[in-house]
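Hello Y.,

Per our agreement to keep a running log of every chain we model this quarter, I'm adding this entry. I've kept the format consistent with earlier entries: sequence first, then predicted structure.
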Amino acid sequence: MFDRYIVVEDTLKNVPDGVQFGARLPYYRGLGLSMIEAVDVTLDGQSVPPEDVSVTLSGQTYRVPDMEHEPDAVWNFGEVGTVTVRRPAGLPPGEHEVSVRFRLRVSYLPMLLTGQDRKVLRVGT
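Predicted structure for the entry above:
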């Protein structure tokens, strides 16, 4: 629904042991984390294993594989979550392609919803 707003511009940065960028949920309502079937991340065309991805929302960090066990945590509409990818070497300065694909389970819909965005973001020096 809101695919072009998933990856947040100007948010890519290296952090100790990884890379971070901002992302929004591609749905017009908030969803419980247990309703998020997948958060697939690709950096420069290479898929990142789910166990190497976490999302921080309202100061709380959740590993993607553990989100299905979080029935009380919610990713609110418009909220920018910080996606962290474990990557000890980080990314070299310059432009990098960042892609995120969500699969969402909505209780009143008979099928999974998907949303995907891909942007070229820049890591500073």
